[in-house]
UniProtKB/TrEMBL annotation:
Pfam families: Peptidase_M42. InterPro entries: Peptidase_M42 (IPR008007), Peptidase_M42_aminopept (IPR051464), Peptidase_M42_dom2 (IPR023367). This is M42 family metallopeptidase. SUPFAM superfamilies: Aminopeptidase/glucanase lid domain (SSF101821), Zn-dependent exopeptidases (SSF53187). It comes from Rubritalea spongiae. The keyword Protease applies. CDD domains: M42_Frv (cd05656). Keywords: Aminopeptidase, Hydrolase, Metal-binding, Protease. Belongs to the peptidase M42 family. Gene3D superfamilies: Peptidase M42, domain 2, Zn peptidases.
Amino acid sequence: MSLHERDRLLTFFTMKDKAISLLKQLTEAHSVPGYEDEVRSIFSKELAGAGELSTDKMGGVYCQRGDGPKVLIAGHMDEVGFRVQSISNDGFLKFLPVGGWWTHTLLSQRVEVKTRSGEKIMGVISSRPPHFLPESQRSKVMAMDALFIDIGATSRAEAEGMFGVQVGDPIAPVSAFTPMHKKDYYLAKAFDNRVGMACAIQTSLELLGEELPNTLVSCGTVQEEVGLRGAKAAAAKVKPDVVIVLEGPPADDSPGLPKQDCQGRLGGGVQIRLQDPTAIMNPKLAEFVIKIAKGEGIQHQVTMRSSGGTDAGSFHMANEGVPSIVLGTPARYIHSHNAMIDINDYLEMVKLVKTLVRKLDAETVAGFTSYLE
């Protein structure tokens, strides 16, 4: 093995080890919309000293360094979760979803209620047992309002007193970051969008020491899962010249989906999204990104989506308009307790973002919005 090959492999394994460490920390964090504190803490600790740290008034967090056009690389910190709606007299919790849930995935799943003191109370999502349901109801999906969370309390007084649970407390799924039998496949909650947050952090760290042709702003937004809200505050604060949105989009390579139409396959590389119902990406920026991916030999898959949305939906309309692109690590079974990725897709995303940041100089960025030619 040549010295060059050895150095390349060492760099790859260093990247991969860092990725695994970040993804474990981030996916196991408790950060539902409006309560993104744990992910924000990881971001600020990892990037302490890597640039100027700041926040906006909604809780979005930023690390900025350099000079020149502002290139914003943004993931959202929140995950789909719940909040305590009420506590019954016998100690069971009614809850409201925060973000999009498919009720099929919820029964018998573990969750944690985070109290005002920061303590996490384990519970399980439950319903009236099928043994006590009429035959006509047993094969139907339970409505969300028919579900409750059992934390083991025997009364409302006990739930509020001994357990410290109050109305409004945030609730997150419980699921450990777990390597699968297949090499490089991992199972966890919240890959949507902890892969984006990991990429923003890792890209910033790996570009440290390099002189960039721009101002790099790494960002974690809030409340994406409830309407792309934090991206509005981020755009107002940073006033970016170009935005790279980093995401954990749904894979489409599982049974029941046409293989010939697959644009989000595990192992297919970083996903480059051109359009979804919330945003049409800037065509010149999209062409630039695809050209860079091809030229650098970065494995990628180009995507047009008829459903879903990302923070690009807010970013691209901000101010006078901001050229935006969405890059993603496809994940099976997002918005559930157990999503799955191939970490190599994530590593290709990091490579592409690093390469783009190095090439986004003032002339290139200005060209994305040059319309009178």
